[in-house]
Amino acid sequence: MSKQELAAVSMHAAFAKIRSGLADIERGVERIAEGVRAVIEAHGAAAREVLQGEFPSIKSSFWRAVIAVAEGKLHPRVVATGCDGLRYLERLPLEDQARAVSEGVPVSVPGTQDHRLVPAYLLTPHEIARAISPSGSLRTLAEQAAFERAEREAAEKRRQEWLASLREEKASQPDEESQVIQWRVEGNRVRVLACPVVLTKEDLRKLLRSIA
Predict the structure, then answer these.
(1) CA gap 36, 170 in Å, rounded
(2) Phi and psi (nearest 5°) for 189?
(3) Per-residue pLDDT tens for 154-205?
(4) Predicted local confidence at residue 175, as pLDDT
(5) CB under 8 Å to 197, separation ≥6 — which residues?
(6) Is 136 within 8 Å of 94 (Cβ atoms)?
(7) Distance between CA atoms of residues 24 and 33, nearest Å
(8) Residue 186: burial class (beta carbons within 10 Å; 0-12, 13-18, 19+)
(9) CA–CA distance, 85 with 124 (Å, rounded to integer)
């Protein structure tokens, strides 16, 4: 075999090991979920707190995901691949969740008529929210575009409301006491105690005399 052929065989073997490892992770999640079911049966709604207390080094978000697997709401492959936006993926049937991870989710490309098929674990939570409706179905590309427009319009509305509130808010007038500049000399430093500070020439002379 040539060096290129040997390299290709070596890479193929490396990928095979990775795929096997990923499958082991999925089976591991399934086994953990089996144990978690017993905890749920014993402690009900407090199961997550109990698990966190028993395994403090594990993030609470992981237990939430595994509890969803144990309750049949989330496919173990979703957890094994580290997908974001689990609450959105939970809306899909388990079979669709597995396909979303293995085959991908059709995601519109903003500003174009194109789309791309992206595995769910490569999507951001926002992209997942755009692709999956609250009713638990995959949005069409037209629906995704409408969702994106609504998001932009809502953001612009919030921006305009914020700008309007700035125009309507009247600047408060400081009283005489707050206008007095306060400072404290600490060694070779001057610590200003009242802000904002406007120094007059006389103020500056006083500060310099205090330091001296």
Answers:
(1) 57
(2) -120, 150
(3) 989 988 888 887 766 555 555 555 555 566 666 666 666 666 566 676 777 7
(4) 55
(5) 181
(6) no
(7) 14
(8) exposed
(9) 7
Structure tokens at 137: 């179905």
Distance (Å, rounded) from C-alpha 59 to C-alpha 38? 20
- The vertex-156 CA angle with 140 and 168, nearest 5°, equals 155
Please state at what angle helix 3-43 crosses helix 60-70, rounded to 10 degrees. 80
More confident residue, 76 or 10: 76
In the three-class reduction of DSSP (H, G, I as helix; E, B as strand; rest coil), residue 196 is classed as coil
Specify the pLDDT at position 36: 92
Q: Which residue has the tokens 């059709």?
A: 106
189 SS3 class: strand
Q: Where are the domains of the chain?
A: 1-80, 83-153, 176-211
Degrees, nearest 5: CA angle 101-133-146? 115
Does residue 77 have a pLDDT over 80?
yes
Q: Which amino acid is at 21?
A: G
